[in-house]
Amino acid sequence: MAGTTDKPGEWMAQWLKMQESLMKEWASSLGKMMHSPAPPGEWMKLPFSPGGLYEQWSRSLSDLPTKREEEGVGRLVYNRIASSSKVYMDLLNFWAKSTGILKSVPVGKTLTVEEINVLRNNWMKNYQEFMKTLWGSRPAGDEESLGKTLEGTTLSASDLTWSLVEPILKNVAQMPDIVQKISRGDTSAVLDLGGIFSKNYEDTVGRAMIAPSFGYFKALNEKIGQTIHAYARFNTAKNAFSSMLYKTGLKAAEKVYQRSSEFIGQEASPETFKAFYHMWWTVNEETYHDLLSSEEFATMSKEMISRGLLFRKWFDDLTDHVLKFTNIPGKKDMDEVYKTLWDLRREVRNQKRVIRDLEKKMEAKDRRKKPA
Amino acid sequence: MAENVMEAMMKESARVQQKLLKGFENMMHIKDMEEGVTPREVVYREDKVQVFHFKPEGEDICPVPVVIVYALVNRQYMMDIQDNLSLFRKLIGQGLDLYVIDWGYPSKMDKYQTMEDYLDGYLNNVVDFVRDRTGKDKVNILGVCQGGAFSTIYAALYPEKVQNLVVMVAPIDLDTQDGLLQVWSKSFDVDLMVDTIGNVPGEFLNLGFLWLKPFQLVIDKYVGLIDRLDNPETVKYFLRMEKWIFDSPDQAGETFRKFVKDLFQQNLLCKGEFKLGGRKVDLKNITMPVLNLFGEQDHLVPPYCSKPLADLVGTKDVTTVAYAVGHIGMYVSSKAQKEMPPTVANWLKDRAVSEKKKGPGKAKK
Questions:
Q1: How far is B104 from chain A (nearest CA, A)?
Q2: pTM for the whole thing?
Q3: What's the ipTM?
Q4: Which of B107, B189, B251 is nearest to A308 (CA)?
């Protein structure tokens, strides 16, 4: 009934006990601090917070088994839970901060437009910080696998691309302005980089990449150029796709901000946070559903996948060209083998069926011959 | 006030960490989970395909064997996920003689494998094998999800071999702009994908399924488990489900191309224009009784994709049963587990009366 197991040794039980007692110590020392005469605002500035402690603890937990345990379904799923818990804990941190911001407004006071803007901007700034965690969490490593599927490449190709595009980025006229925006904490400015890169790339190096070559290495040079060009275009599409997702995240943030007013006046408790968490993920789900069912999403995802595949196509073509000079089979050679095998299997299946039908006919004939 | 916030944070943080520790203890040592729990026997193999036989139990045995055709996406052991949640176990408990197809994992060398290979080849061979083994002229076919569409096509092409057709959450009518999968597949360049990478990775399809409800399936599902991490049985059930969800075989390129282009993008099966191996598939050839089961809250194959089958087939004996569950709920929800097996078994037995009168068939070795 139970799955295959490999029970942890004595060390694991000891280690778990140690972790539990360590957690109790943290809780007790933080509890003491909360009841100390230090002003409450100071607690938020502590070098560690429950979220920070969680992160350290979680890291120590996930690092440990890599040394001691092999991969398995338990570990794999635990990592998914830990990754989602990280989002949950960071949302808890954000909730504490935002609750603090909203509670800082004196009861009964009518706020000016400027004050409301400051309040909203602080809230948004904290939320954007939190969004970094959100986009850091991956759905069970599948995006990574997808990336590998589409790219199917080596690091050197991206290094090469970077060395080509770096000068463009450095010389872009708009760069200082964007850097300034980023330094002011405007995360959306990072996304503008993608657009600038795309435009400048297409106008400069991009043209060179697909220009016809000449000489003995003509074919090779052209394939290298096309591959790098396809990779750059794939990256551009990937950035545009990410930008669309990020912008939707900001749209959801705005809705969460509006709905946060429902929590004003409620006591800060784990239950209130759970209600906030539920509101947060359902609002996000709805907002993303609108995007996912839109024409824009269909177009952008098609663009990204197609460009990824085109890059892969050129990369395979280049690899085949290089392998031509060796005795290692390339993709085209293997495809030929697969095709032949498929033909043979079909042939065998058909022949087996013919034989089986003949056997049946003979059996029936024999039965007819035998006297009753 | 800030004291309250800090205290709430501490409490919640400590709770999560304590639960995660318990989860760590309960999960980390589990290397793998079993693929199916009901005793079975491998009775047929061909290339990567194998057939499991599950012997019927009880006295009221259905005389016609049932061939279960699962989808190529994911694996058939979802229907046998754990002792108390096994449709296979419950179906054999109702006296059904089950033959379940395991399609296996296509590798790169299977990229040219077509839908004809699957249906005219493997499925037809399996049906013939079961007919020979049981001495019956016809078998019952139960198709699940994509396997439901395959079974419908097969029944239309080989009606002389099919006694009754049962389909579960089968995508039949795909001319819709409502379901996300249907919308995405319309703009998907399947030719470019198959021409470039051959087989379509299971991870790619999984990503698509996760994107249907990203926050629920990537975050809340796991956060919701935290509270129950200290229960070893809950953890084991969750691990089984996770293993199944991410156990996604790659799709043989040519089969995937035809499935997406002909069914999802052009809805040819419904239009009566679908062809397999040069033959037109006319659903009006389905003159045997049909039982159509679907989930009212199914977000993968919404009800409007399954329901129209009744109007497309050539028989008047069509029974349509809807359950108030989602796609996965059709296999593992307590409601479906309780109601579906007797519904299927009784429906099949009612339509096997003539076979009962004939008595047991002459089985071959």
A1: 16
A2: 0.82
A3: 0.88
A4: B189
